Amino acid sequence: MQRWTRKLAVLAGLLCVTAVLAGAVSQPVDIRDLMTVTQFDNTGLNKLSAGEIKALNAWLNQYLKSRSTAGNPGTPTVVVPNTALTPTTPAKPPHSSPAAGIANFGADTMTPKEPLQEPSRIESHIAGHFTGWTGNTVFKLENGQIWKQAATGYFTNIDLDNPEVVIKKLTFGYLLTLPGHGETVFVRRVK
What we know:
The chain is globular. 28% of the residues lie in helices and 19% in strands. The termini are far apart. It has four helices and eight strands. With 191 residues, the chain is α+β, with helices and mostly antiparallel strands. A six-stranded antiparallel beta sheet has the order 1-6-7-8-4-3, with no helix packed on it. Strands 2-5 form a two-stranded antiparallel sheet. The chain has two domains: 2-85, no CATH class; 98-189, no CATH class.
């Protein structure tokens, strides 16, 4: 019971921070983008199924929307379209399928050929054996993308086969994280 109480306290704190930082959010919020992979793992949210995460995101977006329409003095205005709870799905713009979005993720660091539609994060695996990064490391992902370390830093005390990675788009650049290890490095996409 104490574990659930801690998880709910963390989630409530995140909601408060989200409401303050969101200001005028113009797109749905994903709980995975509000915390680091380590925080997501430590709160136990990584144990939720894809459907449960979708339901949590739907609730979070509905909550933020209700807070923005409550008209409470001192409460920041948050505009969050509630697409997760809408019974009809609007038509998608061209190239916005999940596969097209993943294929375009990080492509803004390459020379663009057409307007890009991309998610705010991707999850994949590094292809083959992985021993860390040493300042100039190239990451070949199973989805065919190739990323290169974009900042100095070393992480070498690791020996993994096909490790899972999460790459998040930040305001300026991309951050590669190894879930379960808590290590991160800035990267840029080269292919």
